[in-house]
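Q: A small favour: would you put together sequence and C-alpha cells for a protein?
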Amino acid sequence: MLIYYTNISVRQLLAMYVVALCLLAYFYVPYNTADLHRIYATMKSFSSLSFSAFWKTYGVTSSEPLARILYWGIGKTGIYGLLPALNTLICYSCFFYVLKRSAQLIKASRQSIAIALLMFMSIGHFMSVISNIRTMLVIAVIACCMFRESAEKKFSVFHLVLYASTIFIHNIALLLLALRLLCLLIDKHISLYKRTLTLVFAVVGIVIAFQFAPGTIWNDIVKTVENYTTGGYSYTWEYIIGMLIVVAALYIGITDHNACKSGLTVQENRLNEFKSYFWFSMLLAGASFPIFSLFYRLVSGVVSVFSIPFVIEVLEIQTSGYRQRGKQLSPRSAVLVFSILLLLLSCSRGSLCSYKFFVL
C-alpha cells in the first residue's frame, strides 16, 4: 500500500520491508517440530567445539560444509536469532532485487509493482525462509545471479563463486544449476564456442566439488532422493497452495504470451531468457508433483521467483484493449483474485501457528 499511496521511492520502501521482515525473523521462536528448532540444537552442539575439532568431526565429512560453518559461527555468538534474520536479509534482498529491476526494465507503474509484491508475498514462503534456511537461501542466491546474467548481462567471477558455494549448502543447488546450464546450452544467441566453454567449466566444477568432499555429495543426493520418494511427508494445505500457485503461474504465463503477441503490454526482450527459466521450472514442478517435498519447494520458491517478470508484464496490460476483445475479467483483477486466495490459504494453513515471539 505504501508503494502505491506514497511518494517514497520503491527502493527505500522495499529496504524498509526487508528490515521489518528481519526483525520478525530475529524474534521468531520455532515450534519443536520446526526445522529451525533442530538447527538451533545443532548450533548449540557445534558451538561447544573449537573450529578445528568441529571441522574434523562435522565439517570435512559433510556435503554441506558451508551451512555447518555458518551454524558453528553463529552458534559461537550465542545469538541464535541472527541465523533466521541473516537468511531473511539475503533471501528477500535477492527476491526484491529481481522484482525491482524487472519493474525498471518494463517501466512498470507503482500500482503494478505493489500488486506484484502482494502476489509474491501472498505465497507465504516467509516461514520457509526463516525455518528451512538452506533451501530458500540457495534458491534466492542462484535466482538473483541468473537474473543478473540473463536480463542485465552482468557476468561476474563472483557469480561463479556463489554458484559453487551453494552446492555446499544444499543439494537443490545442483538441480537449479543444471537448469541454468541447460538454458545456456540451448540458447541460439550464444556462440558454440561460449557454450562449449560453459560446458567445460561446468564439468570441471562438478569434478572439483566431488573431489572436495569425496563420496559425501553423491551419497547425500541419493539419500535425499530416497527420503523424498519413499519416506517423505505430505501436507494437504501446502499441496493445495502449491497447485493454486501452478494454476496462477500458468494463467499469468499464457496471458503474458498472448498479450505480448497482440501488442497489449510492454515486451521487454532482455527478460526473455529469464522467462525461459520459468517454463523449465514449471516442467520440473509438474514432474515432481507426486513428491511433495520437492514439488512445494519448486513452486513456492523457484516458480514464484521466475514468474516475477510475467506478473509485472501482465499487470501492465492495457485493460481497455483487453476488454474490447470480449474478456470480462481483466488480468489485473485476476492477479488480485489469485493473490487474495493465496493469502487466505497461507494464513489458514497450520504451520503459521508455530510463529510466535516468546514462550510463556
